Amino acid sequence: MARKILIMHGPNLNLLGEREPGIYGDTNFEAVNARLVKYAESLGLEAEVFQSNHEGALIDKLHESRREFAGVVLNAGAYTHYSYAIADAIKAIKIPVVEVHISNVFARDQFRSHSVIAPVCAGSISGFGVLSYELGIHALADMTK
User: Fold this and answer.
1) 106 with 78: CB under 8 angstroms?
2) 101-114, pLDDT tens digit by residue?
3) Domain residue spans in the chain?
């Protein structure tokens, strides 16, 4: 049986392809997810995708993930910069979480260059478009062998 990973998208990522295409690209959310699931499968992983615009739903899913998944690839969106509750959830679940961002957060607004979740994640990847997620999936594949 393939190892299972969770790909989590935070707020506004359901609008990929529509929202600021100059920053986030023009590929729609469904196509991005299909690409990520296929990439995970190529590495021998089974991927489930979850998206929510609600902090509590993301926390609940992180809590659930500790029993079902080998690791998580997480784009927490704006929650990255201020959600200590999500940081605490990551710390509590004791499975690897890789923080990813489509855009280069360090080349944008000043507030985006600070992540409160980074210190409790296994690593952080940003600035490579959707490839950031694939790099995160690859990292999880290596970490969870």
Assistant:
1) no
2) 998 887 677 777 78
3) 3-143
Which numeric CATH code is attached to 3-143? 3.40.50.9100
Per-residue pLDDT tens over the stretch 92-142: 999 999 999 998 887 677 777 789 999 999 999 999 999 999 999 999 999
**Active site includes 24?**
yes
CA-CA distance, 117 to 94, in Å (whole number)?
A: 14
Phi, psi of 127 (to 5 degrees): 95, 5
Catalytic residue among 9, 39, 79, 101: 101
Output the CA torsion sign for 38, 32, 116, 85.
Answer: negative
